[in-house]
């Protein structure tokens, strides 16, 4: 835990050395981020038919289905220096498998699509780019 705090302090000190406020993209170019940083992808998938059905219920009958953009996958990429995983498995591989396991979003935890309707979906984290040092 001490090493993690030390790593964050080094990262912050490097960013302060350039002076002024640093945007997120610039922060990702620091030496600390280049060595220890990675990217986490959060992917949400849903059925187009569920979204279309909810849109029809919300807005009434649509003239054509091509009048609105309907998707079924959303990807978000977030940089990380520290990857916190639960230590439940017998190995790091099992811990990472648990971390990247798909989660169902339904009932009171539905996904809000870009078109503004809530639909059942699945969400999954994956390691998009691994750090050079784990």
From TrEMBL:
GO molecular function: cysteine-type deubiquitinase activity
InterPro entries: Papain-like_cys_pep_sf (IPR038765), Peptidase_C19 (IPR050164), USP (IPR028889)
GO (cellular component) term, any one: nucleus
Gene Ontology terms describing biological process: protein deubiquitination
Domain (USP): residue spans on this chain: 1-134
PANTHER family: CARBOXYL-TERMINAL HYDROLASE, PUTATIVE-RELATED, UBIQUITIN CARBOXYL-TERMINAL HYDROLASE
Protein name: USP domain-containing protein
Species: Eutreptiella gymnastica
């Amino acid at each position: 835990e001490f090493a993690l705090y030390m790593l964050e302090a080094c990262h912050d000190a490097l960013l302060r050395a350039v002076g002024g406020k640093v945007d997120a993209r610039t922060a990702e170019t620091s030496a600390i981020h280049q060595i220890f940083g990675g990217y986490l992808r959060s992917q949400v998938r849903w059925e187009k038919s569920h979204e279309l059905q909810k849109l029809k219920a919300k807005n009434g009958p649509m003239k054509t289905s091509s009048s609105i953009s309907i998707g079924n996958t959303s990807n978000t990429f977030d940089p990380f220096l520290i990857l916190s995983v639960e230590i439940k498995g017998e190995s790091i591989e099992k811990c990472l498998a648990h971390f990247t396991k798909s989660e169902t979003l339904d009932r009171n935890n539905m996904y809000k699509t870009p078109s503004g309707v809530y639909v059942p979906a699945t969400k999954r984290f994956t390691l998009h780019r691994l750090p050079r040092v784990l």
